[in-house]
Amino acid sequence: MGNVIVSGDRLCLRPLDREDATALATHVTTETDTVMVRGRVPVSPLAFERWIVSLDATSPPPGISVAVCLLDEAEPGRLIGVATLRNIDWVNRTAETGIGIYPATRRGQGYGAEAKHLLLSYAFDRLHLHAIHATVWEPNTRSARAILRQGYRPAGRTRWTDPRDGTYRDTLFFDLLRPEWEAAHREWRARRSAAPTVTDAGMTAPASGPSRTGEPA
Amino acid sequence: MEAPYLSTPRFVVRPSGTDDAGAAAAWLPLPFPIGRERGEATLREANAAPWGHQDPLDLLVCRRRDGVVLGAFRLTGVAGRTGTCRLTVGPAVAPDEGDAIRGDLIPVIIGWMRDELDLMTVGLWLPSDDDRSIAAAESAGMTSAVRLREHVARPGGRVDLLRYEILGRPWTVPAADDRPTGESRGEVRGDG
After folding, report:
1. Cβ–Cβ of A131/B148 closer than 8 Å?
2. Pairing mode, if any, of strands A167-177 and A153-164?
């Protein structure tokens, strides 16, 4: 498979292409999970085309979004998600991570965890970032648990970020330093070696961020 | 073009214009050199929407005495009613004057965002070694909400990045009997 920037056991990350727009729009528009997003909104392929083209508009980019694709022989290259480094601070060497796995039937199979480890490997080993943070919308408890398993530490919460069901809900912050990721990565590799089917259901769902339409959380 | 409700005896807060293109080092929160031409393009992009719809919104901080641009506030998320602001102080500003900007203006800007823009939350990102800004934030009623470890590089080391925040006033919904005629549940307002 061409243009791969990082590859793992079952997945690889590659740049998004304009041809991915229809698949992404289909996934977002047919989303079945109502817990992980703050309200589903149908999105046109045209919007994704425009977004994908904009990813290459500036260099160095303020954010990097890449396709998460299967290496599986039965479905080689199938796009099953998007991995994102947003708000990259090239001076302070920090960024925010996000992973979205689509469709919902792919979640709970460890794809999100593997995609996140590939993304962090790219962030720390290729971009030489120093620290990462992530946000999770408070009701998305699966994502919060999964992020903690990956070595992130709780960093606080911002209150009242979104109203839902008649009350205000918070957004949780987590951060991760390079040594912590290296330790968590070793542990994750050991777990995968011991039990290749280990899953990480919480890694797969959008949780927070400016989008309300399934943007990687 | 001073915004009098955001200004103080020492400092003027105002929107930017093309005349500010040559002072990008003071108002742009980046360490890269930005010439006049690129500065003007950036300013035009940063002022694309009228009527208060610009997001992010950049407001310049100038010395009242001579009008020199010293820094800027960048407000984001106002449309979503969860605003965040960051203060940039230019690298040529003397430390005492930078501290004066922080002490004078942070409470004014935060108070305006909370009370006049009526945001649900107002946040302010600060390096953990910026004692003057932290004191100003606390004097505005803000409390520490998030600590991102080692997110700011300094010569010889790193410091944490803090988010201070203050909640808006709780909203209330008037009882149906208190609503003006024609707005109670079940009635349809006519157009004329």
Report:
1. yes
2. antiparallel
Report d(CA B143, CA B84) in Å as an integer. 14
Task: Please report, as a single letter, which amino acid is at residue A143.
Answer: S
- Asked if residue B56 belongs to a domain, the reply is yes
ipTM, interface predicted TM-score of the complex: 0.82
Going residue by residue through chain A, which has 217 residues, state the pLDDT in tens, using 9 for 90 and above: 679 999 999 999 999 999 999 999 999 999 888 766 667 888 999 999 999 999 988 888 999 999 999 998 788 899 999 999 999 999 999 999 999 999 989 988 999 999 999 999 999 999 999 999 999 998 888 889 989 988 899 999 999 888 777 788 899 999 999 999 988 888 878 887 876 554 443 333 333 333 334 556 6
Range of the domain at B92: 4-172
Report the residue of chain A nearest B83, measured CA to CA: A161
Flag whether B137 is in a domain: yes
Structural domains in chain A plus CATH codes:
6-194 (3.40.630.30)
Least CB–CB distance from B31: residue in A91, A93, A159: A91
**Would you put residue A179 in left (φ > 0), alpha (ψ -120 to 50) or beta?**
alpha
Give yes or no for B31 touching A (CB within 8 A). yes
pTM of the complete model: 0.84
Instruction: Evaluate whether residue B183 is within a structural domain.
Output: no
Q: Are A108 and A102 in contact (CB under 8 A)?
A: no
- Domain count for chain B, please give it: 1
